[in-house]
Design brief:
With 670 residues, the chain is of the alpha+beta class. 61% of the residues lie in helices and 12% in strands. Among the domains are: 135 residues, no CATH class; 171 residues, no CATH class; 149 residues, Histidine kinase-like ATPase, C-terminal domain (Heat Shock Protein 90).
């Protein structure tokens, strides 16, 4: 493996190691800042840390309940009855103990440990007060905190100091975490404080050093918050760097590719599950040289980094397609739907139905255990929707197949079905084959009938013309008074038409033999370039007579092919004669030979004398002439013979027409 590839493979691990080292460095610096100053500065720092801590906010809220309890409790009633009367009748025994403990301890703390805390409560219902220091204003000396509970129980705060956590969130957490329980099977609640205004003042000179031994939770929370912030910051950095990792290069390694291919549900369960299991332990113990915490953080960081890579891959993927391909739920649903819709009626489908039943049974067993009756109801609704869709799909497929068969029956062969017909796919394929074969048969029959008609018409015309001329001039020769010059002229006409008739019959005979396959090829290695040059020399007088300039080019001096020399020579001469008859006078004729490793291509191009009004491919049919008015002599079999002899030798013959440009292309394989 190349050094560069090794570096790319190790990049995620390097980021994780750097993250661990960075957090450790953060803790070292934080420890130095917290515990390296003199005793006097240490007391000031303790005061600052506590008054800005989440614990102090919770203490203020607890004191609100304690002060309210002290102001209203009944001396003659047990504390349990007091608590139920003041803060709700649905408190469990567990909550009664918790309420009793924190209120009583809070009262003690207010009197002893928290004697530095001045407090004042105003009851908005009757304007009565309860205080240990008289009325307290927002201008009092020290840190002032005024907490107001309105008639709806909503909380607000005014303060001259700073709090790290919003008081509303702290109050919500206090009620939910400390005064609610699921021990009795139902959620327990506590009455909210209403119509109360509490004012607390902490003197600037108050000594809070005793809180170090009493309220160690202040520093536990402080450490926990510092550590958690460091962990969260490291994850933000990992996320940014992870999005910059070369995903395409990482996916070249099967290790990362396998992780990216993990189904979506498994990724979510593993990521959230491990995060829930390890996050608090990591944040609380990472900075106490705990190897297990460091290892858990490394694993969690790796999972998070892989989640970032998956998210990056998700951004490059169409979301719906990603969920469809990477989700187990989507794959199971697709499996059920596809197997119910796609089995072939022409084959055995018992195994397919068995698979669907097994998946359905598995879902029925698992869903009630996972989601209860509601999950089973949802599954039944989804199954019903799937069955309706399948039934509609089968109905639509059948209707499409019926339309195809009806169109074939009515002779419309252009009706095609490119869509998937599900259970009727095999029948669709058969109908497509029938349609194509039927269309080809009909087209072939039409062409055959057309050729028969053209054959009769053409043969009648081409045979009748010279024959009529022969008979006419033969009758003229019977006149005994003709002089010798006339007799010679008539005999020449008869001879010329007889020769034309002979050539026509020979061409017809050649085409018939070639079409029936009753022809023998004498294959040998010949130089096609020399053969073309020989034919050009033989028919050069025809080109000179028409004023045609022939341009011959070849990329090779010799091109050896295994062909029948006589048939190939006939191919070339037919094309040259065709050019001499139909090319426009005083124009250029081009013959190009291109020799490659696999084939030899021969191209002949000329400008047509007459306008060509028929399709190029029709010129290769029998008795078809480009000169539809038949000004020139010819049987119309020249190109047909050329095509037949070329194909018999494994080649191809193509004709193309571009305006007046006539082009013939012959290709022979080596």
């Amino acid at each position: 493996m190349k050094k560069k590839s090794i570096i790319v493979f190790l990049l995620p691990f390097i980021l994780i190691i750097a993250s661990c080292i960075g957090i450790m460095q953060y803790d070292i610096l934080n420890s130095v800042q917290s515990y390296s100053y003199p005793q006097q500065d240490n007391n000031i720092q303790i005061r600052k840390d506590y008054l800005q801590s989440y614990t102090f906010e919770l203490d203020l809220l607890r004191f609100c309940y304690a002060i309210d309890y002290n102001d209203r409790y009944d001396l003659n009633a047990p504390s349990e009855n007091n608590l139920r009367q003041l803060y709700g009748q649905n408190l469990s025994t567990y909550l009664l103990n918790q309420m009793d403990n924190f209120i009583i301890s809070a009262n003690d703390n207010l009197q002893y440990d928290y004697s530095f805390l001045k407090y004042h409560m105003l009851d908005l219902t009757d304007n009565s007060t309860y205080s240990n220091s008289g009325d307290l204003s927002m201008n009092a000396s020290g840190d002032v905190y005024r907490i107001t509970f309105n008639e709806e129980g909503e909380i607000s705060i005014e303060t001259t100091s700073s709090l790290n956590v919003p008081i509303k969130s702290a109050y919500t957490n206090l009620i939910r975490n400390n005064f609610q329980s699921n021990y009795t099977g139902t959620q327990e609640t506590i009455e909210l404080l209403k119509n109360r205004v509490f004012t607390f003042v902490v003197e600037k000179s108050a000594d809070l050093s005793s809180l170090v031994s009493y309220n160690s939770s202040v520093y536990l929370y402080k450490d926990y918050s510092y550590h958690m912030n460091a962990v969260l910051f490291s994850f933000v950095v990992l996320a940014v760097l992870g999005l910059c990792l070369p995903l395409k290069k990482l996916r070249q390694f099967s290790f990362y590719q396998n992780i990216i291919d993990i189904p979506l549900e498994i990724l979510v369960i593993v990521s959230l599950g491990f995060l829930t299991f390890s996050s608090r332990y990591i944040a609380s113990n990472f900075f106490y040289n705990n190897p297990l915490s460091v290892m858990l953080y490394a694993i969690l960081a790796f999972i998070f980094l892989m989640d970032v890579l998956v998210f990056k891959y998700f951004l490059q993927y169409p979301p719906l397609l990603y969920i469809k391909e990477r989700s187990l739920t989507a794959q199971v649903a697709n499996f059920v739907f596809d197997n119910m819709k796609q089995f072939d009626l022409a084959e055995k489908y018992n195994l397919t139905l068995f698979k669907v039943v097994i998946v359905n049974a598995f879902a029925i067993i698992i869903l009630p255990m996972w989601m209860g009756v509601i999950g089973l109801i949802i599954y039944c609704v989804l199954l019903f929707i799937i069955m309706i869709n399948v039934a509609n799909q089968v109905k639509n497929d059948y209707q499409s197949l019926l339309e195809v068969t009806s169109s074939i029956a009515s002779g419309k062969f252009d009706k095609t079905t490119n869509t998937d017909l599900g259970v009727f796919n095999s029948y669709k394929d058969s109908m497509d084959t029938i349609r194509d074969d039927f269309k080809n048969a009909v087209d072939s029959e039409i062409r055959s009938e057309k050729m028969k008609t053209e054959l009769i018409t053409s043969v009648s015309h081409d045979l009748k013309t010279p024959l009529t001329s022969i008979v006419t001039y033969a009758d003229l020769l019977k006149d005994e008074q003709l002089d010798n010059d006339k007799k010679k002229e008539y005999i020449a006409v008869i001879d010329r038409n007889a020769l034309r008739l002979k050539n026509l019959i020979n061409d017809l005979f050649e085409v018939s033999k070639a079409s029936s396959g009753n022809i023998t090829l004498n294959l040998m290695e010949i130089d096609i370039i020399s053969l073309i040059k020989q034919a050009i020399l033989e028919y050069d007088h025809l080109f000179e007579k028409q004023g045609l300039q022939l341009k011959f080019t070849s990329n090779q001096e010799k091109s050896i092919l295994k062909l029948d020399s006589q048939k190939t020579y006939r191919i070339i001469t037919n094309l040259l004669v065709n050019i001499s008859k139909y090319a426009m006078e005083n124009t250029r004729v081009y013959i190009d030979v291109t020799d490659t490793q696999e084939k030899v291509q021969i191209t002949l191009k000329n400008i047509s004398k007459h306008e060509i009004r028929i399709e190029a491919n029709e010129l290769l049919e029998r008795f078809v002439q480009g000169d539809s008015s038949r000004h020139s002599e010819g049987s119309g079999l020249g190109l047909a013979i050329t095509k037949t002899f070329t194909e018999l030798q494994g080649g191809t013959c193509q004709v193309s027409v571009d305006g007046d440009l006539f082009k013939v292309t012959l290709v022979f394989n080596k």
